[in-house]
Amino acid sequence: MTNRIVLSLILAFTFLSAQAQEPEAQLIRGPYLQVGTPTSMMIRWRTDVLTRGLVRYGTDPMKLNKQTLEASLQTDHKVKLDSLSPNTRYYYSVGSFSDTLKAGPDNYFVTLPPVGTEALYRVAAVGDCGNNSVNQRAVRDQLIKYIGDNYLNAWILLGDNAYGKGRDAEFQTNFFSIYKNNLLAKYPLYPAPGNHDYSDEDTTQNAQKTHKMAYYQNFSMPTEGEAGGVPSHNPAFYSFDLGNIHFLSLDSYGEEENQYRLYDTLGPQVTWIKKDLEANQNRGWVIAYWHHPPYTMGSHNSDKTDELTHIRENFIRILERYGVDLIICGHSHDYERSRLMQGHYGMQNTFDSTLYLISHSSGRYDGSPNSCPYTKDSVTGYKGTIYVVSGSAGQLGGMQKTYPHTALPYSDAIHGGASMLEIQGNRLDLKWVCADGAVRDQFTIMKNVNQHQTVPAKKNEPVTLTASFVSEYQWSNGATTKTISLTPDATQTYTVKDKLGCLEDTFKVEVTK
User: What is the pLDDT of residue 22?
Assistant: First the structure.
């Protein structure tokens, strides 16, 4: 018997032994998708007994022709699939050698697109969700209904993901069990922690300092720059790229080095934030999210709570300086949002719209009065930020005496909801999808629109003109597409407007012989 045959028999015996020794397992949690990148995806799940996790996967749901095996027996399984193709749908099953726990044509994910790629992306922002309430389920159902047959490229958590102490059992009941059959198995998740997530602590330990709590056991984060951005080497805060969008997930409650909070601008987290923003200034969009909002008069008061006040006074000016477009937080159990603004770091009664607003529009871009989109451009350094509080995906209600905050005129503490981001090229839309299905607020931001160009052309040779914005189009020659082709025989000026009369590009086609 040759050595090769002996080796084959040994491997076959090992495989069969592994199958024989695998106990029957029950799926307790998941599967759920973590650390999504253009070329990899981590799949996590939990079983009731120790097994060696196995993921079979492929681009055909009837042919899962690849597999990745876990290195050791686990109950909390983490299997990373590598060498995937960007922006590609993969079907997968989870289980072990001896059984399959979840599979089927609805069990799939789509890898992230190559960094910088422009397309239509959808991201849901879910805040203060994990309380196992009727509101939580209603918001979930309406979010799923809104998504419909479209793919949700990612969803982000704004903290307080499991009430009331952030214990593992509460995560199981109030988070994983709520989203297991819908959002978790298909869409990559990128969380941020809240104060309730930090309450699961040993009586001899302070979780704010040690970070020893269920949140960090239950989620995996892209801390090494594998999803884009500067490596943080810390699961409390990290960044990732989705096409032309750069996200920063921050920690507003935990401490670093036993003393530094998010508002300590010389601490490790803010030091990393500055490096990350410096390295990613050329991204199409920059969005930051964390738990404690700098402005709110909902269930919390940003004038009377130290975390909120210090974040506003000391920290957000850094993000504004780097041109961050959108900041989304939770903590207050309502919805609140600003206009495009910059430079206000004081108490509510010091807010002066004539000093701090970049635009007085509602930004709704729906044909209602004063509703044109907010615009930002490179000439002004992309000045201005929108602040959103979206903390009513589970917990709901609460208003201060001075509600709504003067800087946050679009506010609702009655209806629960979650925020849906839809970003295409240089256009960003946020819609607040409520528990009854209504979209009660929305706004649009556009970048580098209202362009005026001189286009050189030769007589009777084709020229292509492209509008600078994403909308509906009305060209001066009657065309209604974003791009038009012309064959000019003389110098002429063409204009393109949006349907609502908010935007206009001018092209002077200058013809030479």
Answer: 57
Q: Map out the domains of the chain as residue ranges.
A: 41-111, 120-447, 452-512
The better pLDDT of the pair 80, 181 is held by 80
pTM score: 0.94
Nearest to 427 by CA among 368, 478, 498: 498
Domain 120-447 in this protein, CATH class: alpha beta
CATH architecture type of domain 41-111: Sandwich (2.60)
- At residue 131 the predicted structure's pLDDT band, cuts being 50, 70 and 90, is very high
The secondary structure of 367-414, three-state, reads CCCCCCCEEECHHHCCCCEEEEEECCCCCCCCCCCCCCCCCCCEEECC
Q: Report how far apart, in Å, the C-alpha atoms of 389 and of each of 125, 139, 300, 329 are.
A: 10, 16, 11, 5
> Residue 165 CB: number of other CB atoms within 10 A?
17
Count CA atoms within 13 Å of residue 268 on its CB side. Answer: 16
Which helix (DSSP H) or strand (DSSP E) does residue 354 occupy?
helix 353-356
Q: How many residues does the chain have?
A: 513
Q: Are 341 and 358 in contact (CB under 8 A)?
A: yes
Looking at the predicted structure, is the pLDDT value of residue 254 above 80? yes
Q: Is pLDDT of 57 > 90?
A: yes
DSSP category for residue 198: G
Mean pLDDT rounded to a whole number for the chain: 94
Q: Taking Cα atoms as reference points, which of 392, 389, 416, 421 lies closest to residue 405?
A: 389
* Class of 452-512 in CATH: mainly beta
Same fold yes or no, 41-111 and 452-512: yes
In this structure, the strands spanning 66-69 and 27-34 are unpaired
DSSP state of 355: H
Instruction: Say which residue the tokens 């607020």 belong to.
Output: 441
10 pLDDT higher than 50: no
- Encode pLDDT of 91-107 as tens digits: 999 999 989 999 999 99
